[in-house]
Design a protein that fits this description.
With 216 residues, this protein is an alpha/beta fold. The protein has 2 domains: 2-118, Rossmann fold (3-Layer(aba) Sandwich); 129-212, putative n-type atp pyrophosphatase, domain 2 (Alpha-Beta Complex), CATH 3.90.1490. The chain has helices at 11-22, 48-58, 72-87, 100-113, 126-136, 160-168, and strands at residues 2-6, 26-34, 62-66, 91-93, 116-118, 139-145, 180-186, 199-204, 207-212. It has a 5-stranded parallel β-sheet with strand order 3-2-1-4-5, with helices on both faces. The protein has a 4-stranded antiparallel β-sheet with strand order 7-6-9-8, with no helix packed on it. A hairpin with a 2-residue loop joins strand 8 and strand 9 (207-212). Helix 3 packs across helix 4. The longest helix has 16 residues, at 72-87. The protein starts with a strand and ends with a strand. Residues 1-211 form the Diphthamide synthase domain. GO terms for molecular function: diphthine-ammonia ligase activity.
């Protein structure tokens, strides 16, 4: 079955794609939701160019949908409808693990477009999933995090030592509650690792981000 991937650029959407492929789904296109200016991703604060790099590494097209938070659902449904028509997909893959309101929303927007909602990571143990990601060869960098983690965690690549640090701080190792977000630098689906531009740390409203100094 051919599918669109709800792609954030982070570990969960990436690993969900890998698992969906194992289950027989064929990714045809990525969908990334951007801010209203269309230059930064809504979920992870990533510049468009870094998402494009991942899509190119996967040899897949990517569609961008600029939106405000207020219009997010309508914009998402419209984007799915356009993708369904252009790419003839029958399903949409999402990376959520166990947050029921997220699944309900994804099933809602898929029902509105006649697509099957596929959640390959659903009900998986959070820590076990992250360990599986590492074992699969995924390289995941923390690109934003809350004040509990702070600036020192920005730019860190996830490994077992880092998981221990997160647990010591009482932080969910999967970041499923929004404690941190990641960017996938490399994985088995990529033809080559992503070459990242220089960056610096910034802080907005108590949340820490990587600010990319040269976007290309």
């Amino acid at each position: 079955m051919q599918t669109v991937i709800s792609w954030s650029g982070g570990k969960d959407s990436c690993f969900a794609t890998m698992q969906a492929i194992k289950q027989g789904y064929e990714p045809k296109v990525l969908l990334n939701m951007m801010n209203e200016k269309g230059d930064i991703s809504r979920s992870h604060g990533l510049p468009l160019s870094l998402i494009t790099k991942q899509a190119n590494a996967m040899k897949l097209p990517v569609k961008y949908a600029p939106t405000t938070w207020e219009d997010y659902e309508t914009t998402f449904i419209n984007a799915l409808n356009k993708i369904k028509k252009q790419f003839k997909v029958q399903a949409a893959v999402f990376g959520d693990i166990d947050l029921v309101p997220h699944r309900e929303w994804e099933e809602k927007v898929c029902a509105a477009t006649g697509l099957e909602a596929v959640l390959p990571l659903w009900q998986g143990d959070r820590k076990e999933l992250v360990l599986e990601m590492m074992d699969s060869g995924m390289e995941m960098m923390i690109v934003s995090c809350n004040a509990t983690l702070g600036e020192r965690f920005l730019g860190r690549v996830m490994d077992k030592g880092l998981l221990g640090e997160l647990e010591d701080l009482g932080v969910d190792v999967c970041g499923e509650n929004g404690e941190f977000h990641t960017y996938v630098v490399n994985c088995p689906m990529f033809q080559q690792a992503i070459q990242l531009p220089p960056y610096m740390a910034t802080e907005h409203g108590g949340y820490h981000f990587l600010e990319w100094l040269r976007v290309y």
